[in-house]
Specification:
The chain has one domain: Porin, CATH 2.40.160.10. It is 7% helix and 62% strand. The chain has a 19-stranded mixed barrel. One of its GO terms (molecular function) is porin activity. Keywords: Ion transport, Membrane, Mitochondrion, Mitochondrion outer membrane, Porin, Transmembrane, Transmembrane beta strand, Transport.
Length: 296
């Protein structure tokens, strides 16, 4: 991928307004994704000729030896903006999702998410409504059985983003939580500030694409109801070639994260991860992990 193409792609992303949970996403992804520590994971994705997608996930925890997994099937009718997704987990959870996008109105997406645990007759259902326009992105969610209603909205102009989220309990008649965020996104960098947990937790993050091969990010967070200490984490991603990259991060608590991702061939990817507690090098406080992804 050329540098010119990459910058053009980033410029196109700037014109698209982020959802509230995606403010600061570039920094969050760089610091959290591609670190498969603590277990071995296998993910297989296949797509049939009629467009039906199958995905199988399996993960073994290195400490407990417990293996969990799920099987997901997804069908998309792109012409009518309709998508069906169903999943069955090894804990016997049955999950389903129906999506309807740009059908009733342009920029409107409706989602119905359901979950059923037959062994204890536990059920859940949520309805999401997402409305997107060039300068506004709003999501409203209704938890049907818990009667919780939440809404978040982001307004943007020329790279500047301002967002807020409020959750309201209908039965109690009380506001359950409220959060806020501001950010700025340019072609080569982005910054964001979040105030969550009823404006008691604060976090500031940045993302910088130094060049076509190197990316850097950092995050500082503080809990006003806890200690006066600030948690700090910095990381970087280096592209080795068209098929491989390495990532590293470290926190002020001394935990070092390392990761290596290699595309072995088209549709086959392997990802190694390690978490090393540099303050406890002689103790059994370190984690290793491995992830395989197969896709046709």
């Amino acid at each position: 991928m050329s540098a010119n193409f990459t910058l053009a792609h980033l410029n196109n992303r700037i014109r698209l307004l982020f959802a509230f949970n995606d403010i600061g996403k570039s920094a969050k992804d760089l610091l959290s994704k591609d670190y498969p520590v603590g277990g071995v994971k296998l993910e297989v994705k296949t797509t049939a000729a009629n467009g039906v997608t199958f995905k199988v996930n399996g993960q073994r925890d290195n400490k407990t030896g417990i293996i969990v997994g799920d099987l997901e099937t997804k069908y998309a009718d792109k012409k009518n903006g309709l998508t069906f997704t169903e999943a069955w987990t090894t804990s016997n959870h049955l999950n389903g999702k129906v999506e309807l996008e740009n059908n009733l109105a342009k920029g409107l997406k409706l989602e119905l998410l359901t979950s059923l645990l037959p062994s204890v007759n536990e059920k859940a259902a949520k309805i999401n409504a997402t409305y997107k326009k060039p300068n506004v992105h709003t999501i409203a969610t209704l938890d049907v059985f818990k009667t919780n209603f939440s809404v978040n909205s982001v307004f943007g102009q020329q790279g500047f983003l301002v967002g807020a989220e409020v959750a309201y309990n209908v039965l109690d008649g009380k506001i359950g939580r409220y959060n806020a965020a501001v950010g700025y996104t340019a072609a080569e960098y982005g910054v964001a500030v979040h105030a969550t947990n009823n404006l008691s937790n604060y976090a500031a993050s940045y993302y910088h694409r130094v060049n076509s091969d190197l990316e850097a990010s950092g995050k500082a967070s503080w809990d006003s109801k806890g200690s006066n200490a600030v948690a700090l984490e910095v990381g970087a991603k280096l592209k080795l070639d068209a098929s491989a990259f390495v990532k590293a991060k470290i926190s002020n608590s001394g935990v070092l994260g390392l990761a290596y991702t290699q595309a072995l061939r088209p549709g086959v990817k392997v990802n190694f991860g390690a978490s090393v507690d540099t303050s406890r090098l002689n103790e059994n406080a370190h984690k290793l992990g491995l992830s395989f992804t197969l896709e046709n």
